[in-house]
Amino acid sequence: MVRRIGVLTGGGDCAGLNSAIKWVTKTATDPNLAYHSGQQLEVYGVREGWRGLIEVAPSDTDSMKKWITRLDELSVRTWDRQGGTILGSSRTNPFNPKIDKGGQCVENIKSLGLDALVAIGGEDTLSVAYRLYHDLGQKVVGIPKTIDRDLSGTDYTLGYDTALNVITEEVDRLRTTAGSHNRLFVVEVMGRHAGWLALEGGQAAGAHVILIPEYAFDVEKVAALLDKRRQAGVRYDIVVISEGAKIKGQEEVYLSDKVDSFGHKVLGGIGETLSKRLEELTGFETRHVVLSHIQRGGNPSARDRLMGRYFGIAAVDLILEEDFGRMVAYRDGQFTSVSLKQAIERLSLVEVGKHYDPDRYNGRRSSLLPFSRRGER
Ligand code: F6P
């Protein structure tokens, strides 16, 4: 029987994580649950993701204080309104052969007396969760989070809505200064290899051109689209570009060659490259802005607070059902769960044929009608 649950947040932070932690805690420690099921659960927060689980020395009081914190209804009371993760996060990968600490995690789970673990994370954190479950027999469940919204098996990942709102608000701000100076602004947004943030953020913000990683673009064509708009009398324009977008025939642009412990390089710089090329091609005064980590910051939107709540409750349901190796999910308007394997097997990317119009470099305008009736290919 499960008595002690551990909870951790791994990978890039985002809004909505604290709500999920709060609702894992509140649901697990609900006195009604104890009364009706006889299960008295305790919840322990592990600090800084997998790093905490590796670093903690359970027999050492100071180390326990540093890495593990007991959570209860009162301690998490106000957490859902706050951005980031109060437990802290890291990009530590216990299965990176350079450190090889998968076994250490299992030993510490045992010494801490954790009967089940809730891992809140994206592709990387959940791939560790999957290996702990599948290869090392640990009782793990996952909660999906990432502003990139690129996990399979779920239509929503925590942090996405807040990030979309940030993009919309920031572009609204840029719009006034762009208009005052007749300038073109290129706004680079996050998303790694998935174009969701750029596509939906760009549409919500009313960008004229949206460039995504799933469709390599032609700079001359972007310039022509913008030129046509000026000729039609529009004084300024906004281009939203995903950090992972590529110019046709070229590679992605990275900030450096350094890789993290999951083997990822940090994307960044395509906005600046494009901005310079567009100024040369169009003659319009052009500026670029990189929204960067601002997209992950700030208080969670109503949707992220709610989704954190519902995902947190569902994670405890999975534990009570002893249905391990699964990730809670939201699909087709329903809360459900999928296997961790399915969640990490492949990235969920923008389908160009379905969501993106490669002629306009923007979202599709066909919804219920076939594309051809609207002159889209
Ligand atoms: O995966 C979330 C994300 O914000 C990506 O969109 C971005 O490429 C990456 O993390 C940035 O990572 P870091 O916080 O390590 O710079």
Distinctive features:
single chain, 377 residues, alpha/beta, Rossmann fold, 2 domains, seven-stranded mixed beta sheet, four-stranded parallel beta sheet, 13 helices, 19% strand, binds 6-O-phosphono-beta-D-fructofuranose
Given the C-alpha coordinates, what overall shape results? elongated
Residue windows where pLDDT falls under 50 for at least 5 positions: none
What integer value in Å does the Rg equal? 23 Å
Distance between the ends? 56 Å
Which strand order do you get reading across the main beta sheet? 3-2-1-4-5-12-13
Mean pLDDT: 96
**What proportion of the residues form beta strands (DSSP E)?**
15-25%
Query: How many domain regions?
Result: 2
Order of helices and strands: EHHEHHEHEHEHEHEHEEEHEHEEHHEE
User: How many helix segments?
Assistant: 13
Portion of residues within helices: 25-40%
Ligands (ions, cofactors included): 6-O-phosphono-beta-D-fructofuranose
Class per helix and strand makeup: alpha/beta
CATH architecture of the largest domain: 3-Layer(aba) Sandwich
Q: Which assembly state applies to the chains in this document?
A: single chain
CATH topology of the largest domain: Rossmann fold
Tell me the total number of β-strands: 15
